[in-house]
Backbone:
């Protein structure tokens, strides 16, 4: 059974993702958060990609505030809270995963994986070129390689912004058309 614990120790343990949840008796939540945190950290180190470290910062903040929100719950809600894993990798949440995550975010996840893969290949290619090219060419390649990812990211952000604006504009226009159709029907019904 989980029990509310000291606020001081909850704060101290909340500095390490998952530890405060474990301290309060939510072992599955704690292991999930700690595993996700250190897993992302290891992936970032192994692949040499800072995007994993950035995601790790988000996990750290989530875990910190999650622990304090658990501590701040009413006693009744706290004792009724069930300990559960953050991610269901055993297949028990497969319906939700398939319906919501896979179908809705499949393209986004595919694009993210492609970008991460290209980034890893790019960095490895640059390391190889560093050993093969003479000194002055290394500087030129370094400057180009430094600017290309930033330029591609800038273009991607602009495209995403334009796409979002166009989508919102279409949504507003569709809403106005539906409103006009409904107004026309109401007027026709009132005239009859």
Residues:
């Amino acid at each position: 059974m989980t029990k509310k614990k000291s606020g001081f120790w909850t704060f101290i343990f909340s500095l390490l993702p998952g530890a405060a949840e474990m301290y309060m008796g939510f072992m599955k939540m704690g292991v999930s958060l700690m595993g996700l945190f250190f897993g992302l950290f290891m992936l970032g180190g192994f692949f040499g990609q800072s995007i994993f470290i950035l995601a790790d910062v988000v996990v750290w903040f989530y875990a910190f505030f999650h622990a304090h929100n658990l501590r701040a719950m009413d006693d009744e809600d706290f004792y009724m809270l069930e300990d559960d894993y953050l991610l269901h990798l055993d297949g028990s949440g497969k319906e939700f995963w398939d319906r919501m995550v896979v179908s809705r975010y499949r393209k986004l996840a595919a694009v993210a994986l492609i970008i991460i893969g290209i980034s890893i290949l790019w960095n490895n290619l640059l390391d190889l070129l560093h050993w093969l090219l003479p000194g002055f060419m290394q500087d030129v390649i370094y400057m180009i390689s430094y600017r290309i990812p930033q330029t591609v990211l800038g273009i991607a952000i602009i495209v995403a912004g334009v796409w979002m604006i166009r989508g919102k504009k279409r949504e507003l226009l569709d809403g106005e058309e539906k409103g006009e159709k409904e107004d026309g029907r109401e007027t026709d019904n009132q005239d009859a």
